[in-house]
């Protein structure tokens, strides 16, 4: 009746002859609909990923290009400042001074030779010219500038500039060797000892050459860099290799006429991005030649085509399309095989039900012939044996269980005699324990089957062993207790029970059990455990305490994934020496550099009385002129770490130190007044001076005003800090501090 066949698959033997699979019209339609939905979903997902990838490349490019524009703008501004310095240097030159004092052909020849050498060795220097006090040209290094006249407003009496100042002009164009060249000129006043005008020295500098000295080192050479004035005229960036159709490509062309939408966006903002249909633009407004009389603003502009970004993403597009096709084929195969598997499993279940419901009594089961060879096994049983399901069919139960011949013969004899056997077998060197029940059933007088039920008890055995080890571990010589985040007792070991004389009572609060010393600093303890994972301290016996010796308390925290405290582990040790301080409790890790959010939480949780007798000290540790460039940020961070380390050494336990920002620290000082805080600030600076860390440090001090938030508190201290920076003879200043020690009724500005 239950003769084995292979009608489903040659790799899956049958248990009963009635087992078979049949493809109905419903199955075919359902399979086709799922395949179509899979293809549509893959098409949509692939298209979305490609579009998102290209958009991400556009954003990355825009961010990188804006950073490059900032660098070029900063260097261009520095370069313009250097040109002014260079013009002043030329004006103070010895040869020019000698010529002005005693004009002669010989002196003029020497001066010409010196200027020619300068124009040859300085790329952006187009030429120099000397004008008399009336603004008439005496001579110039190049004939290109002989027709240029000085603006009338720069002549003596018509301008507020003069003396050692340098005038920088607007950008303009001049033809040089048949080409239009954008330039700026800088004018220096040449004065006699009596401050009368002896003439004017003018230097002419090329804008394009100036940018060419900067762009290759700090800008993508393949990316366009355009310089426009505030009226949208192009001064640099012409002759682009492949310009956009609506972008100006000749010097003097107007962006306002070719691309008015882009210019409107630039005119309304100092920096930003502009996305058109086919390209992305990045622009930055910068003042290159600003003077006291005139504000001159220019725009740096760069762009990239979306087609270029799509070309860069083309390889990834091909990879995504190929991956999508592969996933689609794999998905179609999985759907087909899943349907076939479901149909085979249904047929197998039909065969199993024919076996008088023998498989319906257990979750993990198998059926074998009378010799112990597996005819069918379910997935749960395969997982219990740590085998793949398709590798167990038609294998010997003896080999699967790693039984020797004597043991297997013993089991077989018991089955023949009693029709059943139960036992526990260890697999994988006894680390994997399986409880097995075997029943021998008869389907016909000449045909018998074994019904094998598996129960994986490895976890149960391991859990019992672990529980036993934990019990041995918890009953050690160190008193230990486990509480929740509020300090409510959950469990404790025998040593803790004996030390605190609890007699098994776990309905206590650990905070009240250890006394007011823990209660008063409970909030600080939770904060430190959250930030550092541990808190340590010492307590002494009190009037109603259950202990009579000094105790050392160590509190460790178990945090959730969100960073909140779930459990607290208290470790209590005796024979702790009595502290030398007047307080009976001392936290060894109470001093630390806090975040501003943690300082704000501490400030908000502090009582109004303590706030009222407090001071706030803001310390600026960034010396002027030392850490000015972006490259010096790491040096400033190192200096801040050194100063923090020195502050923490002598910082009183009740004072709180926190980061305000890079280069600024804030200290919250409870129970202080203006005098005490000022003395503490002086002592702090003296300590830093001993370690050569006091250079450029300024301190602002403020007192607490009633119902004041931490933000207002910091604002008052910042007022004092600004005064300290402005003061030339001291670097400590106070604002909004109290007029007398602990006289909190009145406040004043000091």
UniProtKB/TrEMBL annotation:
The keyword Membrane applies. Keywords: Membrane, Transmembrane, Transmembrane helix. It comes from the Bacteria. The chain crosses the membrane at residues 28-50, 316-339. Residues 612-737 form the GGDEF domain. This is Diguanylate cyclase. It comes from Shewanella subflava.
């Amino acid at each position: 009746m239950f003769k084995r066949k292979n009608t489903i698959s040659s790799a899956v033997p049958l248990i009963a002859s009635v087992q078979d699979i049949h493809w109905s019209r419903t199955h075919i339609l359902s399979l086709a609909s799922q395949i179509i939905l899979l293809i549509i979903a893959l098409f949509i997902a692939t298209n979305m990923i490609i579009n998102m990838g290209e958009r991400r490349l556009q954003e990355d490019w825009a961010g990188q290009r804006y950073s490059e524009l900032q660098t070029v703008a900063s260097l261009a501004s520095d370069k313009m400042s250097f040109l002014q310095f260079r013009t002043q240097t030329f004006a103070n030159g010895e040869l020019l001074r000698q010529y002005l004092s005693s004009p002669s052909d010989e002196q003029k020849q020497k001066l010409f030779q010196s200027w020619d050498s300068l124009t040859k060795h300085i790329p952006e220097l187009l030429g120099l010219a000397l004008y008399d006090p009336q603004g008439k040209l005496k001579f110039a290094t190049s004939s290109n500038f002989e027709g240029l006249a000085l603006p009338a407003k720069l002549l003596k009496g018509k301008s507020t500039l003069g003396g050692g100042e340098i005038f920088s002009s607007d950008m303009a164009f001049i033809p040089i060797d048949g080409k239009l060249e954008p330039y700026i000129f800088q004018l220096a006043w040449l004065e006699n000892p009596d401050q009368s005008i002896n003439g004017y020295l003018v230097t002419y500098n090329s804008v394009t050459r100036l940018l060419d000295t900067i762009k290759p080192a700090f800008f993508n050479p393949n990316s366009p860099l355009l310089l426009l004035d505030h009226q949208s005229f192009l001064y640099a960036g012409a002759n682009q290799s492949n310009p956009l159709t609506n972008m100006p490509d000749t010097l003097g062309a107007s962006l306002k006429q070719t691309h008015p939408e882009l210019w409107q966006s630039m005119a309304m903002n100092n920096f930003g991005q502009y996305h058109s249909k086919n390209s992305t633009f990045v622009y930055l407004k910068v003042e290159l030649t600003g003077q006291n009389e005139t504000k001159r603003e220019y725009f740096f502009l760069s762009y990239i085509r979306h087609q270029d970004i799509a070309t860069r993403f083309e390889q990834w597009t091909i990879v995504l399309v190929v991956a999508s096709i592969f996933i689609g084929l794999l998905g179609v195969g999985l759907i087909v095989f899943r349907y076939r598997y479901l149909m085979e499993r249904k047929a197998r279940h039909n065969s199993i039900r024919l076996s008088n419901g023998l498989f319906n009594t257990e979750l993990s089961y198998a059926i074998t012939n009378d010799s112990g060879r597996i005819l069918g096994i379910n997935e749960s049983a395969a997982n219990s044996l740590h085998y793949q399901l398709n590798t167990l069919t038609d294998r010997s139960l003896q080999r699967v269980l790693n039984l020797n011949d004597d043991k297997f013969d013993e089991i077989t004899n018991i089955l023949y005699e009693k029709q059943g056997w139960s036992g526990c077998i260890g697999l994988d060197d006894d680390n994997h324990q399986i409880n097995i029940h075997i029943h021998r059933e008869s389907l016909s007088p000449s045909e018998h089957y074994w019904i094998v039920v598996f129960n994986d008890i490895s976890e149960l055995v391991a859990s019992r062993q672990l529980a036993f080890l934990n019990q041995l571990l918890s009953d050690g010589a160190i008193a230990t207790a486990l509480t929740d985040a509020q300090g409510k007792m959950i469990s404790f070991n025998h040593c803790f029970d004996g030390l605190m004389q609890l007699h098994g009572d776990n309905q206590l609060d650990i905070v009240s059990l250890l006394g007011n010393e823990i209660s008063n600093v409970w909030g600080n303890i939770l904060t430190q455990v959250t930030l550092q994972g541990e808190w340590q301290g010492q307590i002494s016996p009190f009037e109603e305490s259950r202990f009579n010796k000094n105790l050392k308390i160590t509190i460790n925290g178990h945090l959730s994934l969100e960073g909140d405290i779930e459990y607290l582990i208290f470790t209590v040790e005796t024979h702790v020496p009595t502290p030398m301080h007047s307080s009976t409790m001392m936290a060894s890790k109470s001093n630390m550099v806090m975040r501003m959010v943690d300082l704000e939480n501490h400030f908000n949780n502090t009582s109004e009385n303590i706030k009222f007798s407090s001071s706030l000290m803001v310390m600026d540790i960034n010396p002027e002129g030392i850490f000015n460039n972006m490259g010096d940020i790491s040096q400033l961070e190192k200096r801040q770490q050194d100063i923090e380390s020195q502050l923490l050494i002598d910082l009183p336990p009740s004072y709180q130190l926190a980061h305000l920002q890079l280069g600024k620290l804030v200290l919250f000082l409870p129970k202080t007044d203006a005098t005490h805080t000022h003395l503490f600030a002086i002592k702090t600076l003296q300590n830093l001076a001993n370690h050569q860390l006091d250079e450029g440090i300024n301190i602002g001090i403020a007192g607490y005003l009633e119902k004041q938030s931490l933000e207002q508190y910091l604002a008052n201290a910042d007022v004092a800090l600004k005064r300290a920076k402005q003061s030339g003879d001291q670097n400590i200043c106070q604002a909004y501090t109290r007029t007398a020690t602990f006289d909190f009724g009145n406040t004043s500005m000091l």
